[in-house]
Amino acid sequence: MKEPIYLYWHDALEVAWDIFGNPTFAEHMVYDPYHVYEGAECEYSKWMLGDEAHQIQNELPEGATIVPVILASDKAPVTRMSGDCEMHLLFLTITNINSEVHMKATAHAWACVAYTLIPEFLAHPNFHSILKARMWHRCMDIMCANLKVSSHRGIFMADPHNNTHYCFTPLAAYTTDLPEQLMIACVSKSALPITTAIQSQFGDAKLHNICSTLGKNIDPWKIPEFQVAAKKQYLSGVQLPFWWDWCFSDPVIFLVGKILHACHKWFFDHVLKWCRWVLGDDELDMCYRCQHKYVGTRHFTGHCNVQCTIVAAIAGGADGTFVSAIHAIVDFIYRAQALTFTTSSIEAMEACLAKFHQNKHAIQEAGMQRGRTGNIPHFHILKLELFQSFGRSMHNVGSLIQYMADVSECLLITHCKNLFLRTNHNTNTSLRDVLSAEDATAPHMPSVVSEEYSFSGSTTHCNHFLQGFVSNDATTAFHVTKKPDFTNKQASYLSAMYHLPDLPMLLISTIDNIASQNSPFHS
Q1: Which of 94-103, 131-140, 230-239, 299-308 has the lowest mean pLDDT?
Q2: Among 449, 482, 485, 487, which Cα is nearest to 465's?
Q3: What is the separation, in whole angstroms, between the first and last Cα of the chain?
């Protein structure tokens, strides 16, 4: 390595212990798996409702409590235009806290565990990725060592009410983007992190078997030989992943799909391009420009939200089978974002994905599946293959939307980028200052949260409209147009355009009724 690597970290078990006993979350804690039925079907929403929670509880001693850990990490550049400093940040929370609470960054249910600098090696470039991955897994092994011990032997913890529990700490979920999922699962870019599917099998509409352990009698530190053998098995070359001795923790279970990258980003990278090419950029743009603003209709500007009207926009301008394929995949994406699921709703979601695969040939026949060099005769897309595992993940760990990256992305800014900009930009001293600041503020966090945030009480009436407000009882919505489509137009012009012959007289009558004699409305 060019420079020594310093690991700045807290013991992950101590962090989980502190969150488990935080009195701020006393009214929002769950300690045992349970069932909720919708009719005759089990509901899958929170982790404690999933099949994995009940399976783990059945294997623990009688009276034991599960403290399932959720980890989140991301790679972040902390210097701009100079220094080229990057690091992995690790955040932690527990699923005993209701998902409605820990999904909010302002609830302070997450804690920063470590800053892991990304090293630079004085080795051949072909070996940089395998060395960086091994270094990261070794750092994770150090930080989570006591969590893994307690997952085997258990540990006594006090809850917010000061009741003592005999706790076990499995890894319930790991929230991160797809490149890091591949690094965690120790597989190459040509394989799926949670099944045995490889690139040539992507998009074949089949759910492949889960990953299994593959071993070879090769010294892992003979890196050239080990790397060659690993690539033949579509592995990355990491011989000791941090999770290998973590009880009740399997990457097939805890690596969950991210709605943001797996669905919304995939829609923008593929589905929206197919629609643009089949209609043409100008025609599709005109379809959205012609949409009139109606009261009660939310009008979207971000590319993620174009999904709401994309099917209606291409209907009539594309082949019926093509529209059916787009309709099916958009329906799948929306169903995957639900907060609660049952067996029938999961089957309905999977049926939408199956319908897309049945009709996707229309996309190829129209010549819309393209690459930089021309048409592509297949759908070997990793994220498309990842959709096949959504149903199994929902049965195991509940709804996927509770593991969205919104919280970790927010924490990445507040706990790293903003703090680092206020330091002297010296990596070692800056990180020491940041961790010292967090240690100093940690004891005061419960009082701050309890004063500033309330997790119970009456429901807040939210405004879901573009520009408007709601009545006190939230039963009536009012839409106010601040920037009218037409300015400096006479009432007669508006009357003719919108076919409102009574508009001029009614407008005069309204002004006469509400305006005083000294009002500027009176001429």
Answers
A1: 299-308
A2: 482
A3: 82
Q: How many other CB atoms sit within 10 Å of the CB of residue 126?
A: 10
Contact 335, 349 (CB under 8 A): yes
Helix H or strand E segment including 510 = helix 503-514
For 231-245, the pLDDT digits (tens) are 888 888 888 899 999
Q: What is the pLDDT of residue 228?
A: 83
Nearest-angstrom CA–CA distance, 284 and 281: 5
DSSP structure string for 477-489? EEE--SS-SS-S-
Instruction: Identify whether the C-beta of residue 70 lies closer than 8 Å to the C-beta of residue 403.
Output: yes
Length of the chain: 523
Q: What angle do the packed helices 343-359 and 390-397 form, to 10 degrees?
A: 170
Sign of torsion over alpha carbons 331, 392, 240, 175: positive
Q: Where are the beta strands (DSSP E) in 365-511?
A: 370-371, 374-375, 468-470, 477-479
- What is the helix, strand, coil percentage profile of the chain, to 5? 45, 15, 40
DSSP 328-366: HHHHHHHHHT-S-B-HHHHHHHHHHHHHHHHHTHHHHHT
- The pLDDT tens digits for 110-166 are 988 988 877 778 777 888 888 888 889 999 999 999 999 999 999 999 999 999 999
* Of 16-20, 153-157, 201-205, 447-451, minimum mean pLDDT range: 447-451
Q: What is the distance between the alpha carbons of residues 206 and 211, in angstroms, rounded to a whole number?
A: 15
List, in sequence order, every beta strand (DSSP E) within 17-127: 37-38, 41-42, 65-66, 69-77, 86-94, 111-117
Q: Supply the pLDDT for residue 453.
A: 37
Q: Which amino acid is at 28?
A: H
Question: Higher pLDDT residue, 108 or 221?
Answer: 108
Q: How open is the CA angle 40-42-45, to the nearest 5 degrees?
A: 145
Task: Report the distance separating Cα 405 and Cα 180, nearest Å.
Answer: 13
pTM exceeds 0.85, yes or no: no
Nearest Cα to Cα of residue 193 among 50, 47, 383:
383
Q: Which residues contact 64 (CB under 8 A, 6 or more apart)?
A: 57, 154, 165, 166, 167, 168
3-state secondary structure 223-240: HHHHHHHHHHCCECCCCC
